[in-house]
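Entry 14: structure prediction run for DUF4130 domain-containing protein. Input pasted below.
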Amino acid sequence: MHAIVPTADERAAAPCNALPLQNVCYAYDGTPEGLLTAVFTAIASKDADPDIVEDGLVQPRLDQSVRYLATDARCADRVRRLIVRAGGMQAFSQVISASLSDDPDKGRAVFDLAAFAAGLPALASCRGCARRKTCDSYARCPHNARHRRTAGLDVALEDLSHPHVGAVARLDRAVMNERHRMKQFIRFEHAEGDVYFARCNPKANVLPLVIDWFATRFNTQRFVIYDENHHVAALFDGTRSTFVRTDDLPVPAAAEDETVMRKAWKTFYAVASIEARYHPELRVSFMPKRLWKNILEVAEPLDYEPARMRRLAGDTPDELPAPPSELPAAASCDAADLEATAELEPAAVAAG
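Run finished. Output tokens:
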């Protein structure tokens, strides 16, 4: 018995029996507003198991379709109001911090938290909120605080043991730690045109979280911070800040006084350090080595103290100089001298 093989025309005319695509991957532009737009689209589509990733990191599975979404401010604002109504501005701040993380699962974590907040019972509004028909101050409104405690909503959104709440809290904590490191270890150099320039390589897109802090410290001084990992430059012109995406930012030439200031700062660092208290493991825990290439005092040791600075930078083992094998002649003594001194001490005490 021979098998009947269909021809090419018969195969083309045959109906397709392939299974429909069930899973959907929502791709957004990488901004917090784009992430909230993707979360809103997934909730509105009643998708219980979506993948929400940045458009540059999309890797669809064999049974998955991809939807590239344009950022919609109205959709993002609806998710914001949903989270604020359920957990206050503190919960929304954690969501924004989580959206700046480099974790590939941050989209799913924010979606799970938003879906969890949507399933919580509605809050009772006070009269002022009823007149305005909106309220974004649940964390500060005493009337709504009473209703939240009655409904148990504070416990639900602050319970870190809950998988949806704990996932966003962990992302928020990691981003805040990276923000704190950037405040400590960003080093500026004076460039031509009276502009200060700095490079950084954080594990999260934290420039939006630190730009205001640096703008307050610099006041009206212009500066530029370039994030090498995320290819984002933060520019401050003395009055307002701007963010620019670029793969290659030209480094401006150094100003005339930059060489003197760099040497002065490295000299201060070398003099202030205490070799006897050098603890390399503790130092690395506070100052990760991945940041050292952009930290002046460890990236460029002083020329006239190469061995000491290399040891402080951790390139060589921490070896303190060995004590001398022989004491100087002025400090040496033998057993006879010690005995003579011991005999003289009681006589000196009696004479006194």
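Notes: The longest helix spans residues 73-99. Will compare against the previous run tomorrow.
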